């Protein structure tokens, strides 16, 4: 109820609506391991926009510290697809084994 009221109030006031689109997916993300060390793993993150008109494609390198789960890319501004890829990989890391390659949408 509160979420709906906040949404309606933001629309009526002309403010940006909080949150982001969950469905349908807006990105298809492909991740694959570039290298892996005991404390870090680096992924190539390639993403294609599923929106119309499409946003520019993404191609970044994402490094994740396996111990504290902090991550960074080669560019100062981390693209939303890299944040999602980091969370996706962290959630699927099991007993020290990290996903090697995968495709997902969000």
Helix/strand/pairing category? alpha+beta
Largest sheet, order of strands side by side? 4-3-2-1-5
With helices defined by DSSP (H or I, 4 residues minimum), what is the helix count? 2
Distance N terminus to C terminus? Answer: 25 Å
Number of domains: 1
Q: Compute the CA-based radius of gyration.
A: 17 Å
- Strand tally: 5
How is the biggest beta sheet arranged? 5 strands, antiparallel
Mean pLDDT across all amino acids? 90
Identify low-pLDDT runs: none
Portion in strands? 25-35%
H-E order = HEEEEHE
* Helix content bin: 10-25%
Global shape? elongated
Kindly describe this structure.
- This protein has 106 residues and is α+β, with helices and mostly antiparallel strands.
- 24% of the residues lie in helices and 34% in strands.
- Strands 4-3-2-1-5 form a five-stranded antiparallel sheet, covered by helices on one side.
- The longest helix is centred in the C-terminal third of the chain and has 13 residues.
- The protein starts with a helix and ends with a strand.
How do the helices and strands line up, and which of them pair or pack?
Layout lengths: L1 H12 L13 E10 L3 E10 L8 E8 L5 E3 L6 H13 L8 E5 L1
Antiparallel strand pairs: 1-2, 1-5, 2-3, 3-4
Distinctive features:
alpha+beta; 34% strand
